[in-house]
Known about the structure:
The complex is a heterodimer. By secondary structure, chain A is mainly α. In chain A, 77% of the residues lie in helices and 0% in strands. The model of chain A is unreliable at 1-7 (pLDDT under 50). By secondary structure, chain B is mainly α. Chain B is flat, with a radius of gyration of 21 Å.
Amino acid sequence: MTEVVTNNSNKLKAKDFITVGIFTAIIFVVEFACGMLGYIHPFIVASYVIMIPLVGAIPMMLFYTKVQKFGMITIMSVLIAIIMFVTGMGFLGAPLIIAAGVIADLIAKSGKYKSFKKTMFSYGVFCLWICANYFPVVITADAYRKSLTDGGYSAEYCNNLFLAINYKTIGILLVLCFVFGCLGAVIGKAVVKKHFEKAGIV
Amino acid sequence: MKLDPRTKLFMILVVSAVVMMSATTPFLWAVRIVMTLIPIILLIIEKKYTSAFGFTFLYAAALVMTFCFINEASATFFKTFVTGYSGIVVQFMPCLITAWYVVRTTKIGEFMSAMQKMHLPDGITISLAVVMRFFPTIREEYSSISDAMKMRGISLGGGNAAKMIEYRMIPLLFSCVNIGDELSAAAITRGLGGNVRRTSVETLKLHVSDWLLITAFTAVAVIFVLFKYVL
């Protein structure tokens, strides 16, 4: 309850930054756990757009209940971009990740961070950051294939990967990502209600 | 030996950049392996023998695997699996080792004062510091949750994927939220987020070892780019 009282001003405080940090760490762990599965088969890489929005929705919906000011979602996307760079995913996707974060933030803001409908769309847009990881695959397709085969991947893996992710399917992947983001938001909201609201954490 | 956090950040930057460019010739592989050895040596200097040994073993095993299996038509599932995994280990291990070294040896205070010196905005600095501090916490909490589940005989959630995720995620989130509240209380007591510029007990200065490492990593980056794209 005290949160509501102290969060009156529009400026972000240390507490908000800490919240952002914690949830970014959790989201990254989710991403990393799903990412590890991707090395089994390239089609799983494509199915990130389904897995990560659904699983990540639970922490994100809890995060959204704590967001009351503009900037928190944006900072989260910047952090994700930094972490993606540090873990070797390249910087091609970074502008996309940050753009998704800013737009998601703006959508949620237009609902004053309270309207669930807006939150749902906002999370759907935010999930598009996952597609940013496909960027090197789509844009630099030939160079990327070469770097993969040089890096020790089998030719079969590459063929399947490019079968699943290319400039034709990226549109479908983006839409899927958004749709499953929205769906995940509904599920995540239900889970948050079931566990956290009853416990009085939110 | 104590390194400046800025040197460590530079190390991360170079390693992530080099990892993104694939090594195509034996010479480039050698450069990359040498680059990976530096953080391992640093780990040994810091007396983190177990992790240093573990990383070396994993990296070496993955290298051997990659060079033995590479370019072979990997038909069987097992082979695809092994090549896939060792490929990924070889590719990202340098990053992982460097990041591990940095996270393990940098105190949050040092990190904060380095970021402040580089004039990064508070929001990024604080959040990033929390992220860094939080990975070990998540691991600890997760293993406690696993223990608790084992004690009650719930191992896989009855094979139901949604249940498996729920059983792990919800307790984890509960403890993370609580830890977050404690963390904010502790941070605010120490004057984080106040209007005044914070001072730090850590005085940061680049020593000889810092300059040596910076030179070494710059050299690695330059050599890599030169031999890959120019020559």
